[in-house]
Amino acid sequence: MMEVTCAIIIDENGLVLATQRSEQMKMPLKWEFPGGKVEAGESLEECLKREIQEELGILVAVGEQLLDHTHHYPDFSIRLIPFICKIIAGSIELKEHLKYGWLRAEDLPELDWAEADVPIMTNYLKYHKKNDPK
After folding, report:
1. Which residues have C-beta within 8 Å of that of residue 79, sequence separation ≥ 6?
2. pLDDT per residue over 63-90, tens digit each?
C-alpha cells in the first residue's frame, strides 16, 4: 500500500486550493488536493512540503492532520493522508497539473474529483462546517 500525503491549502479568505491533473498523468483531468508519495525515511510533513514545492513551487506550513482514507484502485491501493496547510512563501507555478482553482468549501463538490480524493473532500467539508465561525 502506497502512503500519499495531500494538502488542503486554505488562503486568508478561506478559499481552498484544488488542482486538476494534466492529460499526461494517471487519472487525467481529475481534480485533487496536491501532494504525493511518502519516500523512505521521510515524515508525512516533510513529504508534503517537498511535494508541494516540487509540484507548485510554493512553501507551505503544514497544520492539522485530518482523517486519512484508504482507496483501492484497480491496479494499486493508496492511503491518502490530508493536512490543512497555508502558503508561507512563493506563488503558484504549475509544474505537473493542468490548472488550479481557489474555491469556496461549498463549491468543492462540483468538481470531478479523483476517486481517492472524494472522501477527503467530504471529510474536509464536515471539518469546515464544524470549525467555520460564520
Report:
1. 1, 2, 3, 4, 68, 69, 70
2. 999 999 999 989 999 999 999 999 999 9
Q: Give every CB contact of residue 128 below 8 A, 6+ residues apart in sequence.
A: 105
Q: Which three cell numbers stand for residue 130?
A: 464544524
* DSSP at 2: E
What rounded mean pLDDT belongs to the chain?
95
CB 88 within 8 A of CB 60: yes
Helix (H/G/I), strand (E/B), else coil: 40: coil
Domain spans of the chain? 2-131
CATH T-level fold of 2-131: Nucleoside Triphosphate Pyrophosphohydrolase (3.90.79)
**In whole angstroms, what is the distance from residue 133 CA to residue 101 CA?**
23
Cα separation, 57 vs 27, in Å, equals 22
Residue 79 grid coordinates: 492511503
Q: CA dist 73 to 1, 7, 83, Å?
A: 11, 21, 22
